[in-house]
């Protein structure tokens, strides 16, 4: 823990989250070559798709400051996303929310929620929490059942 915040992941985990949630304008995931090219253009330094792959896999864990800045630039993130736990944790939540909102059904639900009065939104929030709780219990039971059968 740092500054009272849970650790928001390794550099590899943070880079993976950024890559999986921040997409190109056509909605596709950035390729390793595209990330490397972005770093090369931003820094003027060498960078290969193999190096980016090694960062993603965790083989390399301490990229240089210019590489971090170049990678952050590719994804439109502040460089501190990669080493500030509190900022990274908040940004990861925001990135996941943004990714969920890209799904048409979720976006539609969110838009309709804006049309519901505050008391209705609270009722829907309680219903959603109950559904989530029941599904979690059911999954837990399924895991217990599978474990006892083995």
Describe the structure.
- Helix content is 68%, strand content 0%.
- It contains seven helices and no strands.
- It has helices at 11-21, 32-43, 49-57, 65-75, 85-101, 104-113, 118-149.
- Helix 1 (11-21) runs parallel beside helix 5 (85-101).
- The longest helix has 32 residues, at 118-149.
Distance between the termini: 37 Å
Fraction of residues in H or I helices: 55-70%
Helix/strand/pairing category: mainly alpha
Shape type: elongated
Largest sheet: none
Averaged pLDDT: 83
Number of strand elements:
0
Number of helices: 7
Bin the strand percentage.
under 5%
Uncertain runs with pLDDT below 50, 5 residues or more?
1-7
Radius of gyration from CA coordinates: 20 Å
Reading the helices and strands in chain order gives HHHHHHH
Layout of strands and helices, then pairs:
Layout: H1 11-21, H2 32-43, H3 49-57, H4 65-75, H5 85-101, H6 104-113, H7 118-149
Helix pairs in contact: 1-5, 2-3, 2-4
What descriptive keywords fit this protein?
mainly alpha; elongated
TL;DR?
The chain is 68% helix and 0% strand. By secondary structure, it is mainly alpha-helical. The longest helix has 32 residues.
